[in-house]
Amino acid sequence: MGKSTGFLEYKREVPKDRAPLERIKDWKEFHLELPEAKQQIQGARCMDCGIPYCHSGIMIAGAASGCPIHNLIPEWNDLIYKGLWKEALARLLKTNNFPEFTGRVCPAPCEGSCTVGLNQPQVTIKTNECAIIDRGFKEGWIKPNPPKNRTGKKIAIVGSGPAGLACADELNKAGHSVTVYERENRIGGLLMYGIPNMKLDKIEVVQRRIDFMNAEGIDFLTDIEVGKDLAIETIQSEYDAIVLCGGATKPRDLPVEGRSLDGVYFAIDFLSENTKSLLDSDLKDGKYISAKNKDVIVIGGGDTGTDCVATSIRHGCKNVIQLEIMPKAPLDRAENNPWPQWPKTYKLDYGQEEAQALYGDDPRHYSITTKKIVGNSDGTVKEIHTVEIEWTQDSTGKMIMSEIPGSDKILTADLVLLAMGFLGPDDQLIDQLGLERDNRSNVKAEVGFYQTSIEKIFTAGDMRRGQSLVVWAINEGRGAARACHEYLMDLPK
Questions:
Q1: What's the mean per-residue pLDDT of the chain?
Q2: Are residues 363 and 285 part of one domain?
Q3: Residue 429 sits in the same domain as residue 456
Q4: Residue 446, Cβ neighbours under 10 Å: how many?
Q5: pLDDT tens for residues 16-69?
Q6: Is residue 2 scored above 80 in pLDDT?
Q7: Burial of 439 (0-12, 13-18, 19+ CB in 10 A)
Q8: 243 and 319 share a domain?
Q9: Which end of the chain, N or C, is more open, meaning fewer C-beta atoms within 10 Å of its C-beta?
């Protein structure tokens, strides 16, 4: 696959991003494209290694190694190199329903397990994928293709995030009639309101796919919360099967003094309200949490925290600091983090790059925990009190956190955003149905079967596995669709 000596002859090259100080003035996507000839050269770097862990999709040391949807990466890298873009698109779409999403927002575990990455910069798998799908849309190769025959079976999918959309897409292709219910006013779930527009354009990319799926025969209903606006019993009586894809929407809270002060918000509320206002009015309606002229503290070092940093900067914040409870990652793989594990190395993501360009430094402060939040006399947040910590291992190998005496600090804050992940799905619908849960409060269903403790009700995505990646949600949605299809085909005619 690719050119067997390509990795020796060509250097890794990814498209340049728009300059940080330019892109923070708007909400447009910041990634640019490589010229076609250069992108083909990047396909040539795939080395016909014979051990392509890039599409293995296995869990090693608690993280994904390789692509969870088993993209045929060496194959379409080779086709790019040969200039066979339409054929590359066909191979890509065999395993991935939405490459335009993963090609933009996936952290690319495929690249972490690329064989070239053993001692050189890995193949640009993510940008190759994005280039294929974007070209497919530009060239008009991707056209609605509704099924010619219908099975007569009706399925309701609750939740329109990546798992729900992937499940709907697969079931529709199998000829079933699919209706997707979404409690928000727009379809897309996490893709629409959980990820900022500068990472994933809502109209040009997300809505384009929704319109495409609708043209293929999938019905989308918004502003309906099943179990509240529409009784679950009604859904159960009207459909042959139900797939719950409600996500893990319960944010992890910070149980410290001062948490209830005005100005302390969950990151998901900050991000979702911003995107709603942006789409509704270009932020003119004021129906969002503004960081303008404020000292912002983001608590949490993951992707959501990065998105909060970037959004705050675009609002025009006075300053932004991001607190991370874990220590700073090394520049290179540690000895206990070998290939093909996900490389736990230091990265300057887009939000931190923007903060560095604007304020002169990476906004992240590592190995810090919050002790309390202090407010003004009017009940608004004024500052947070922190302390540095160190991590050690006990005799069982468990990591233990301890405070460093004398390392207390007080940080000024007008806005505090909690970006510490999610604990599980909302309870209402699960409790109404009396579904069995696992020990992490997720809906219990086995991988490969996806059926809950109630007949004809399936589940997939973060609602089943817990907070995870978009690419895992697509994997789950596809798997649940397969299980649901097999169930429906076994029903009496």
A1: 96
A2: yes
A3: yes
A4: 9
A5: 999 999 999 999 999 999 999 999 999 999 988 988 999 999 999 889 999 999
A6: no
A7: exposed
A8: no
A9: C
Indicate whether 148 belongs to any domain.
no
Task: Please write the tens of the pLDDT for every residue from 304-347.
Answer: 999 999 999 999 999 999 999 999 999 999 999 999 999 999 99
In a domain, 68, yes or no: yes
Q: Are residues 238 and 372 in the same domain?
A: no
Q: Is 401 in the same domain as 427? A: no
What tokens does 22 get? 């330019």
φ, ψ for residue 176, nearest 5 deg = -80, 160
Give the domain-ending residue among 113, 138, 163: 138
Model pLDDT, residue 493: 63
In this structure, is residue 143 part of a structural domain? Answer: no
- Judge whether 342 lies within some domain: yes
Give CA–CA dist 460/468, Å, rounded: 12
Using the predicted structure, report yes or no on whether residue 424 has a pLDDT greater than 90: yes
Q: Which residues pair with 319 in a beta bridge?
A: 295
- Give the pLDDT confidence of 23-32 residue by residue, as tens digits: 999 999 999 9
Q: Are residues 257 and 240 in the same domain?
A: no
Same-domain check for residues 288 and 404? yes
- Residue 199 sits in a domain whose CATH number is 3.50.50.60
Q: Is the pLDDT of residue 1 over 70?
A: no
Last residue of a domain, one of 82, 111, 138: 138
Same domain assignment for residues 79 and 36: yes
Range of the domain at 93: 6-138
pLDDT of res. 372? 97
User: Taking Cα atoms as reference points, which of 97, 95, 138, 104 lies closest to residue 30?
Assistant: 104
